[in-house]
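Submission checklist for the structure archive. All mandatory fields must be present; incomplete records are returned to the submitter.

[x] Identifier: DUF569 domain-containing protein
[x] Organism: Kalanchoe fedtschenkoi
[x] Residue count: 277
[x] Sequence attached
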Amino acid sequence: MDLFGKAKAVRLRSCHDKYLMAHPDGESVWQGRDGTSPNAVWTVESVPYKNAIRLRSCFGKYLTASDDIVLLGVAGRRVTQTSAALVPDYSLIEWEPVRDGVEVKLRTATGHFLRANGGLPPVRNSVTHDIPRRSITQECVLWDVEPADSVNIKQQQQQLLDDEFPTLESLMSSHRVSSEEGREEAGRPNQRLIYYSVMDGKGNVVAKKRCFWFTGTEVGELKQKLAKETGLRDFIVCLRNPFDGKLDSLKLYLPPNNDVMRVLVVPSASKAAKYTR
């Protein structure tokens, strides 16, 4: 915790001399060299009664250790940005700083570490969380902490972020739930949590992300559920590729293991639908 000190905001620089960046899509994170960008600045929030912090992006969302698979054959799980209102388990956005000399490791509640990946595309510049097994990859979980308190953020812009993406503290104070309800929402047997957003004809997200529990395994079943949720009839269900930002359409079956999914509902007649893969 001492490396973060009393800093209200920080930049995290990886072993590849790149910064942890919040993607403009409001969901993904990656590594980039532009440390002057507001996307590289993370607001630090201490977790009460724990040796842990939360990191909030310039889009008002929290750095999250999700259970999503990045790519088949790629070690580690996906790291994302998540609105406090959509966090299924608050431990997913809590990171324990572990000092290693002048650098720091950020450990999740499950013992994984925030990892900056190198190598060849599409893995290069990605950010995941796992436990590095080989000595050659140990440095991938080390981060330099740079205070960023001097970054000027307009009050009106910050107020807009606070209104659209409430902090975890404000969310908890306005929505108190019992421990029994919390355990129920943390997971349901044989179901997966589906987050979805709706795009317009130009490819812009026009409906805020919502979610529901889903028991099916086929894309056709998911489309029927989404049709009831959105009122749309002719659309494509897509996933956004975390590495190139492009849209990949779902074909027949959903991924196994009931992992949490974040999908985009794309009208078939839209411009964005023409560029799906």
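[x] Structure attached
Curator remark: The helical segments are 155-164, 168-174, 179-185, 219-230. The chain has two domains: 9-154, 191-274.
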